[in-house]
Design goal:
Peroxiredoxin_C; 4-stranded antiparallel β-sheet; Glutaredoxin; elongated; AhpC/TSA; antioxidant; Peroxiredoxin_AhpC-typ; 4 helices; oxidoreductase
């Protein structure tokens, strides 16, 4: 994890104490991730991270809260943009990363309300015979009015 901030290094050192204290830890200048100083907003502009609806006291758009997740192939796998006044859901980030890893490694899909350890979905493109080999714990089908049997669930591999 790397953070990009439009604040200076000096500001990072000051507010990192607040972050640690807010989380119930010792108010130190150390955070468990590096922070990139982007006080001129060069990267924020290039990455489309400005929120045109929210402006600072000088009328300059402030940065939105953006999360980018890249895979081992160096390709963007996920982008979440939160408007500047909206807090990020940090529980969602590891959930999505675990989901992306499962999808890449195990040929499954995760449903909308999936949590780590819940059942996953067998991809509809995997034939039944192959699914039995890939998922020895079996799969159950959620019956739906349309009659297609494409919602197949299996324990998380």
């Amino acid at each position: 994890m790397i953070s990009l901030s439009i604040d200076s290094v000096e500001d990072h050192l000051a507010w990192s104490k607040d972050v640690n204290a807010y989380n119930g830890e010792e108010p130190t200048e150390k955070l468990p991730f590096p922070i990139i100083d982007d006080k001129n907003r060069d990267f924020a502009i290039q990455l489309g991270m400005l929120d045109p609806a929210e402006k600072d006291e000088k009328g300059i758009p402030v940065t939105a809260r953006v999360v980018f997740v890249f895979g081992p192939d160096k390709k963007l796998k996920l982008s979440i943009l939160y408007p500047a006044p909206t807090g990020r859901n940090f529980d969602e980030i590891p959930r999505v990363i675990i989901s992306l890893q499962l999808i890449a490694e195990k040929r499954v899909a995760t449903p909308v309300d999936w949590k780590n350890g819940d059942s996953v979905m067998v991809l509809p493109t995997i034939p039944e015979k192959e699914a039995k080999k890939l998922f020895p714990k079996g799969a159950f089908i959620k019956e739906l009015p349309f009659g297609k049997k494409y919602f197949r669930y299996t324990p998380q591999p």
